[in-house]
Design a protein that fits this description.
Blueprint lengths: L1 E3 L9 E5 L5 E6 L9 E6 L2 E7 L9 E6 L2 E8 L5 E7 L5 E6 L9 E6 L2 E7 L9 E6 L2 E7 L9 E5 L5 E6 L9 E6 L2 E7 L9 E6 L2 E7 L9 E6 L2 E7 L9 E5 L5 E7 L6 E8 L2 E7 L9 E6 L2 E7 L9 E5 L5 E6 L9 E6 L2 E7 L9 E5 L5 E7 L7 E6 L5 E7 L8 E6 L2 E7 L9 E5 L5 E6 L9 E4 L1
Antiparallel strand pairs: 1-2, 2-3, 3-4, 4-5, 5-6, 6-7, 7-8, 8-9, 9-10, 10-11, 11-12, 12-13, 13-14, 14-15, 15-16, 16-17, 17-18, 18-19, 19-20, 20-21, 21-22, 22-23, 23-24, 24-25, 25-26, 26-27, 27-28, 28-29, 29-30, 30-31, 31-32, 32-33, 33-34, 34-35, 35-36, 36-37, 37-38, 38-39, 39-40
Length: 481
């Protein structure tokens, strides 16, 4: 045994062991002067056979090189469990040509590095440990040039990445639906995606193109009808939409614009009338929920129709037909978005003079104020198929007359009743046949019974008049014409 102090610190850092013939068998070296030998060389007939090293200086051998005829054949890296996790094989010129790694720690080499002249030429990886290659990377000049990934091991690649001369990703293709052909392509700058294209209908044309800035979506263009022209463009900030323009009729002109809030929720939608080039509908939202719609129905630039919404359902609509800033028609709707009541200012004097009442969306009553006193003078009633069955005409003041009409299925009058003095009791009855007056009965003494009878012919001419003079319910005199 021979000890040496190679660095002159007064401590032996190299020990050589010899056999009986004086031939070296082993050489130990302390390369970092910590007092522990970390490199051991083994010889046979003075020919190097093996080198063991403690690479991390923890006192345990973790790297072994094996030699044949003085040339390194392989190298093995060992973990604390004394299992080989990496093995490198060398050619006759001691250049590595294959490196195997166990990246999962299961004892099997799952990643293989193939090398030529000391440079990596190809890397394969078995990511799920079943012995089949999932990822294959081709290198050029020591840098990755192409990587193919077969996630489900069916022989078809779901992802292919192409690299530039610096070994950085330049573009990639992705087979999302796993039919064997990529429909998504990504383009990179300095390892960051700057553009992504998608061919969703597999016609060979890009349907969606997304541009990125600083790793986040900046702009997306979409061809929704697959005619080769983008018709929807969305601008993003912090990966959330800011604005969107849409060509809904595919005439290469924007006819809808959308604005979003900082949370990416819609706050406004502006829409063009077809081919007009002018906005005629504006929808406003509160926290992404529709709240108000303004509509220019005739395209004159004035938004005369306003609709208010709650829980995404319309509950009130107003229309300013004369553009004076005051609604002429106000429609109230129920939770099912059915009309319940409509109030109309027909003469645009600022006062409601017509009221329409609905049941399940059907008109059941129509009230009119014909003298502008704020009270209904005429009331019309309708059945469930929209036919008028009854109407009332009053002047709206107490003590004044009211006339009530009743109609058949064809809306022809069949009977009319009149309260001539407004005391709440009927005093005149008009009876009709086939829409023509047939007879009139009158209660002249207000006892609730008719005491005057008039009969008319088919032409509407009076042919007989009878009168009950003593109010016993029977005619006393009769006048025939």
């Amino acid at each position: 045994m021979v000890e040496r102090d190679t660095n002159g610190d007064g401590k032996a850092d190299q020990t050589a062991f010899f056999d009986d013939l004086g031939k070296i068998r082993k050489l130990e070296t302390d390369s970092n002067s910590d007092g522990r030998m970390d490199t051991v060389l083994y010889y046979d007939e003075e020919i190097l056979m093996r080198v063991e090293r403690d690479m991390d200086f923890d006192g345990l051998i973790d790297c072994t090189d094996y030699f044949d005829k003085g040339k390194r054949q392989r190298q093995e890296r060992i973990n604390r469990s004394k299992k080989v996790y990496q093995r490198t094989l060398f050619d006759e010129n001691e250049q590595p040509f294959l490196l195997k790694k166990d990246t999962s720690g299961n004892g099997a080499f799952d990643t293989l590095y193939y090398m030529k002249k000391g440079e990596i030429s190809e890397v394969t990886a078995d990511t799920d440990g079943n012995g089949m290659v999932n990822i294959r990377t081709i290198y050029k000049n020591g840098k990755p040039a192409e990587q193919r990934t077969d996630e489900d091991e069916n022989g078809k690649y779901e992802r292919i990445v192409f690299y530039n001369q610096e070994g950085l990703p330049e573009r990639s293709g992705h087979d999302i639906d796993k039919d064997g052909e990529p429909e998504v392509f990504r383009f990179y700058r300095k390892e960051t995606v700057v553009k992504e294209t998608k061919d969703t209908n597999r016609d060979g044309k890009t349907d969606i193109e997304t541009l990125f800035k600083d790793g986040s979506s900046a702009e997306q263009s979409r061809d929704s009808n697959f005619d080769g022209v983008f018709d929807i463009v969305t601008i993003f900030k912090n990966d959330k939409p800011v604005s969107q323009t849409i060509d809904t009729d595919f005439d290469n002109k924007t006819d809808r614009t959308i604005r979003f809030d900082s949370e990416g929720r819609v706050i406004e939608i502006r829409e063009h009338a077809k081919h007009s080039g002018k906005f005629n509908r504006i929808s406003l939202f509160n926290k992404g929920v529709l709240a108000r719609v303004e509509h220019d129905m005739d395209g004159d630039g004035f938004f005369e129709t306003i609709s208010l919404y709650q829980n995404d359902k319309i509950y009130l609509q107003t229309r300013d037909q004369n553009r004076n800033g005051k609604p002429d028609i106000t429609t109230f709707l129920n939770a099912g978005e059915e009309k319940e009541r409509v109030e109309i200012d027909s003469d645009s004097n600022g006062k409601t003079d017509t009221w329409q009442f609905y049941n399940k969306g059907r008109l059941v009553r129509l009230d009119k104020d014909e003298n502008n006193d704020g009270r209904a003078d005429v009331k019309e009633y309708y059945n469930n198929i929209g036919k008028r069955v009854k109407s009332e005409t009053c002047n709206g003041s107490a003590g004044k007359s009211c006339l009530t009409w009743y109609y058949d299925d064809a809306e022809n009058p069949v009977r009319a009743e009149q309260d001539g003095n407004g005391d709440g009791r009927i005093d005149t009855w008009f009876l009709y046949s086939k829409g023509r007056i047939a007879s009139v009965q009158e209660d002249s003494n207000k006892d609730g019974k008719a005491d005057i009878w008039e009969t008319y012919d088919a032409s509407g001419a009076l042919i007989r008049r009878e009168k009950d003079l003593n109010y016993d319910g029977k005619p006393d005199i009769s006048d025939t014409r």
